[in-house]
Amino acid sequence: MNFPLGIETLEPVMSNSPQTIWVITLLMEGLVAYDKTSNIAPQLARNWQISGDGLRYTFNIRTDVRFHDDPCFKDGNGRKLTSKDFKYCLERVNNPSTKTRGMWVFRDKIKGAREFIESFKMKNGNDKNGISGLSTPDDSTLVIELYEPFAPFLSLLTMTYGYVYPSEAVEYYGNNFGQHPVGTGPFKFNKWNLDRLLVLERNKNYYEFDSAGTRLPYLDEIHYTFTQSVETEFFDFIGGKYDYHEPSAETIDALSDDNGNLIKPDEKDYRLVRQPWLNTVYFIMIQNESLPAAKQSPFLNNKKLRQALNYAVDRERIVKYVLKNRGIPAHNGPLPVGIPGYDSSTKGYKYDLKKAKELLGEAGYEDGKGLDLKLVISNDEMQKSIAIAVQEQLKETGIELKIEQVLQATLNTKQQDGEYAFTRGNWGADYYDPENFMALFYSKNIIPHGPNKTGYSNKTVDTLYEKSIRITDFEERKKIYNEMERIVIDDAAWVYLFYNQRIYLLQNDVHGFYLDGLNNIVLKYTRKN
Predict the structure, then answer these.
(1) 277-501 is classed in which CATH architecture?
(2) pTM attached to this predicted model
(3) If we measure between CA atoms, which residue out of 499, 500, 503, 510 comes closest to residue 273?
(4) Which single residue of 186, 438, 464, 476 could bond 217 by disulfide (Cβ 3.0 to 4.6 Å)?
């Protein structure tokens, strides 16, 4: 496989980019996971019990799982997994000193997490007793207590922020743990020549077997390269160098007919696959004065400017002519098509040039005069094509948009630090619940404390969010989320662009490969003839 955008790190507490997550899910695992039908199933926990009040989760840990063989262990042989490993990892992802990006996931859920995090601000360092809501009665039992009921809690544990790894590896590799991860997954780390080649090898001691009694996984090795040219990657794919390829819009256009089907498929050594992807693409507009880019951001306290940009973007044209119908215009707010809770009746923004010009003038930028606007995107060609299309559309209002391209890894880091006032963002579902998207508008999740990269803050939204997480009935929660959506749409918290789709090419000799609805590349069951 080839990752043209590169990989920033394989550190699980910093795993907030698709490329990082794709690899980590092969190396590490959590207590539970989604199966092929998108239902939560046991993984490293054999089973679990939930107390009647929804506050106490008791997990029975598998006793037949070992960590990968690695030099971090005294004899080089991976030791047995225990419940204490989960306690260690869940505390580490809530430890500010690790540069964690996943603190927001468990901070307000697991009892004692807030106090644990606050303890690091004290003069004497941290809470030596750890998080009070995590306990290990024995090596095969983990108990997690919550502050209050949180209906999607098991879903949170499917995220890479909840994955397990040995403390020995963190201590042995130190700051380089993100370049040499160790886990329990079907594949283990082999080598990584940064920006050139990453190799994973089969975990010969993996605990899972198929229905015929054959130990998983089937593949001996996985090779990831980092060629930045999508065109070069495509020709290498045709030549057999790669098994998987995500083609450009131009390539898709040349390979498919008007219905989107592969032309003359019987003559090809590969097949074309289309599937939904729970992912919303948008532009980030910094709206909080506490963030570094605030001084360069014209969006603070200027809702009319944010609304003007939303009306100025023609999403339908972008989807049709730039994406070649590889997406759906985001006319219904932040929740993507396919996520539970999506409501097609929720009205967002549609292209309205007249309205855009009126709002731009009311915002203090008549015909775009005085507005210095720069959009920062990654080195991805599709991102560039979309940005150029938006640039041309904004010209119709008088706005002269500048575009700057940086490496994807740089974009991820700078966005997390709040250093870009206007930049391309996207959010793919971490789990099948609308809460995962609405958490991006909760003020306590403003970076670096969570995924709210815009700095958006609204007291009513905060109140509704806090109310929603206490309600276990999904239909009731859905009503609250839809109310939140209407508010963030009116506030123009994002410039909404489109809901994504996955389209990829796969060699015909590859079997058992699939991407799940959360965009994870699953290779545990993959074979090659």
Answers:
(1) Roll (3.10)
(2) 0.75
(3) 503
(4) 186
